[in-house]
Amino acid sequence: MQVIDIVVVEDDERLGALITQYLVRHGYHVLLEPDGAQAEATVLAQAPAAVLLDATLPGRDGFDICRTLRPRYAGVICMLTARNDDIDQVLGLELGADDYIGKPIEPRVLLARLRAHLRRQSPARREPDALCFGRLRINRSSREVHLHQARVDLTDAEFDLLVVLAEGVGRIFSREDLFQSLRGISFDGTDRSIDARVSRLRRKLGDDQEPAQGIKTVRGRGYLFNRGAWE
Fold first, then answer.
1. Domain coordinates of the chain in residue numbers?
2. pTM, rounded to two decimals
3. Class of the CATH-defined domain 6-125
4. Euclidean distance between CA atoms 98 and 92, whole angstroms
5. Which has the closest alpha carbon to 69: 97, 49, 30?
6. Between 193-204 and 156-167, two packed helices, what is the crossing angle to 10 degrees?
7. Are strands 136-139 and 6-9 parallel, antiparallel or unpaired?
8. Rounded distance, CA 95 to CA 69, Å?
9. CA distance 125 to 50
10. Is the CB of residue 73 less than 8 Å from the CB of residue 44?
11. Per-block average pLDDT, block size 10, for the chain (231 residues)?
12. Class level of CATH domain 130-230
């Protein structure tokens, strides 16, 4: 039986799918529950690390679910709502929610806030060790990388570089950024060891076509991990 990290309780099919897909790409095992009447039973059965709970649901609203769920559930509860009323926010927090996130939801902000809450939980409830991007899976604890379910053998230096880039997905890393992150020193303007490491990493990941698509070169700025290339 697969362990579920996060239960998303959301009746908006499009939004629920968007949140679920985004969290899955970042290594979480997610279950989408669209039915408010079934939400409490689903959460208690799955015992996830966190629940994203829509405040307005058919059958039973999120505030009532939060009120009855909190005494029996010790994980993170983040309420999602399109309503901007301060009274609703206060009510949600007083009922036991850990956070109150307004719609429209920015996925990166949601992920950052969710990770912050999970870091405060016990070690068993922290963010998962795996970074998943479609065909590519990076396991930080075992230091293993799989592409198309086949293991990719990387050196420690190549693995560390991949993790830095993948954890900052969508961000452009300059050589200075990478030298500081990987070696703790400043880039002297001439050392090309990072470029060589990127080249080796691309080759092992089958991303050595011109131009590379998975680890892109942004001219004059640095390197960017492109998750779309792995899907």
1. 6-125, 130-230
2. 0.55
3. alpha beta
4. 9
5. 97
6. 90
7. unpaired
8. 10
9. 9
10. yes
11. 82 91 87 92 90 87 88 88 66 77 85 83 55 84 86 91 88 88 78 90 93 92 90 75
12. mainly alpha
- At 120, which amino acid appears? R
Angle, CA of 86, 54 and 34, to the nearest 5°: 165
Task: Tell me the residue length of the chain.
Answer: 231
**Amino acid making up residue 4:** I
Three-state secondary structure of the chain: CCCCCEEEECCCHHHHHHHHHHHHHCCCCEEEECCHHHHHHHHHHHCCCEEEEECCCCCCCHHHHHHHHHHHCCCEEEEEECCCCHHHHHHHHHCCCCEEEECCCCHHHHHHHHHHHHHCCCHHHCCCCEEEECCEEEECCCCEEEECCEEECCCHHHHHHHHHHHHCCCCEECHHHHHHHHHCCCCCCCCCHHHHHHHHHHHHCCCCCCCCCCEEEECCCEEEECHHHHC
Query: Is residue 230 within 8 Å of residue 136, measured between CB atoms?
Result: yes
Strands 136-139 and 130-133 turn out to be antiparallel
Q: Which two tokens stand for residue 176?
A: 């200075």
Residue 59 tokens, joined: 């059958």
Q: What's the token pair of residue 107?
A: 């996925």
Structure tokens given for 190? 């001439």
Q: How many CB atoms lie within 10 A of CB 55?
A: 23
